[in-house]
Specification:
The structure is a single chain. By secondary structure, the chain is of the alpha/beta class. The chain has 2 domains: 296 residues, Aminopeptidase (3-Layer(aba) Sandwich); 132 residues, 2-Layer Sandwich (Alpha-Beta Plaits), CATH 3.30.70.360. The strands form 6 sheets. Strands 9, 10, 11, 12, 13, 15 and 19 form a 7-stranded mixed β-sheet that branches. A hairpin with an 8-residue loop joins strand 17 and strand 18. Helix 2 packs antiparallel against helix 3 and helix 9 crosses helix 11. The N and C termini lie far apart (63 Å).
Length: 448
């Protein structure tokens, strides 16, 4: 029996363990930095397998280590714990609207299965180095106000779980990182050319309340200012270059006032996305200028909070090639989709890819719209069992034969940054609290 056959059988033997975890997490969805039930479920399962966990403590998430006993590189296998919010989904949490409509529950179950299989006798024979299993919170960039509160309290510095784990030292001893995102479609696996990065924004327009019918001239309408800002953002969309994959999608999150009062506070949230950091920063300034124009039109004030979101995903070309070979050996070339194009969404795996040789492919087994009210896992074997087999075989291939594949990838790495501290110092410059317009007797001064 060759290594792949052995690892596949070891994963198959963990089917019920994975199914129980997948069902339990699905039934208890939690959004980012709130995943305590998920954390407890996975913690118990990992400790039953004999793992000692390093927990984040004040936020959910942990890592566990498996040492082959022979020196070599460290491969980190990742999974995400959080859900999205889709209150119209028939199986969402009725109190919170949370639901795993992005398949993170299946990811976590697959990582558990890989951790169980690789701990079995014979699984590490011929391998060197170490394997890390990292369950990460808060991949979905939701509830920005809540995350800003956590940041102000000093609980977190960054809104994304992987980035926060990088800050906390969870990846200090890693050399290569990979995960498999649960997906759908007709192919068992899909490899893409990369994904957008993003900056997250909170915008607050402040006006002056007054009687809406009796004395509207005494007020400054923050809702109108916000509406003008949104129109200005829409007006600059044709200036975004197609090759930069720019996406801007603001939502209105709150308004203070009643129908017979001029509203004095209107709040928005938005992302600005792009496929490279230079154009991300450049277009973010355009968007800020557009939002500020809405305040100027009405004489309102506007504050903009910019926070680092995620860097663009840049899949390591040699990790990409190795992943393709492992996938084809598992399911055949015809069942692996190679998509050289860029995906418009964002993930904090992009931050990982700035520092480590990394790969972020997609699996299968889901049906329905991602983040939508018809999303579900239709094929457990594809979404969880095959995903765990992929993770095991990637780790096994990287660390076999004196870690030949891993050493080649490390020797030919082309990451944008050489260390975590260097990367964090770079993205910290994105954070800004902008008072967009100041009114003086001489006129208005703007900052963006």
């Amino acid at each position: 029996m060759n290594r792949q056959e052995m690892l596949n059988r070891l994963v198959e033997a963990e089917r019920e363990r994975m199914r129980e975890a997948e069902r339990t997490i699905w039934q208890h969805p939690e959004t980012g930095f709130r995943e305590w039930k998920t954390h407890a479920t996975l913690k118990q399962a990992m400790e039953e397998l004999g793992y000692t966990l390093r927990e984040a403590g004040d936020i959910p998430g942990f890592r566990a280590e498996l040492d082959t006993g022979r020196p070599g590189p460290t491969v980190a296998l990742l999974a995400e714990m959080d859900s999205v919010i889709c209150a119209s989904h028939p199986e969402c949490d009725r109190e919170t609207g949370a639901v795993h409509a992005c398949g993170h529950h299946a990811q976590s179950a697959a990582l558990l299965g890989a951790a169980a299989a690789l701990r079995q006798p014979g699984a590490l024979d011929g391998l060197c180095g170490r394997i890390l299993f990292v369950e990460v919170p808060a991949e979905e960039l939701l509830e920005l106000e809540y995350r800003e509160e956590l940041r102000k309290k000093g609980v977190i510095r960054y809104f994304g779980g992987k980035l926060e784990f990088m800050r906390r030292g969870f990846f200090d001893d890693a050399d290569l990182c990979l995960m498999l995102h649960t997906g759908g479609g007709t192919h068992a696996f899909s490899l893409n050319g990369g994904m957008n990065g993003c900056i997250v924004k909170q915008i607050a327009y402040r006006g002056r309340t007054a009687h809406a019918g009796g004395a509207p001239q005494q007020g400054i309408n923050s809702l109108y200012a916000a509406s003008m800002g949104l129109q200005a953002v829409n007006a600059i969309r044709e200036t975004f270059r197609d090759q930069d994959h720019v996406r801007v999608h603001p939502i209105m999150t709150g308004r203070v006032g009643t129908v017979n009062n001029i509203p004095d506070l209107t709040t928005l949230e938005s992302y600005v996305r792009a496929s490279n950091i230079k154009m991300l920063l450049e277009n973010n300034r355009k968007v800020n200028r557009a939002f500020i124009s809405g305040a100027l039109a009405l004489g309102a004030e506007v504050t903009i909070l910019d926070r680092p979101g995620y860097a663009p995903v840049n899949n390591d070309e040699n990790m990409y090639d190795l992943s393709r070979r492992v996938m084809e050996s598992l399911v055949g070339k015809e069942n692996v989709r190679i998509n050289p194009g860029f995906e418009g969404g964002s993930t904090d795996m992009g931050d990982i890819s700035c520092v480590f040789p990394a790969i972020h492919p997609n699996g299968s087994g889901a049906v329905g719209k991602g983040h939508g009210d018809d999303y579900r896992i239709a094929d457990f074997d594809s979404a969880v069992v095959l995903a765990a087999q992929y993770l095991c075989n990637m780790a096994g291939t990287l660390l076999a034969d004196g870690a030949k594949e891993a050493e080649y990838i490390l020797a030919n790495r082309h990451t944008l940054y050489q260390s975590i501290p260097e990367y964090l110092a770079s993205i910290d410059r994105i954070a800004a609290d902008i008072n967009g317009v100041t009114y003086t007797e001489q006129g208005a001064q703007i900052r963006y």
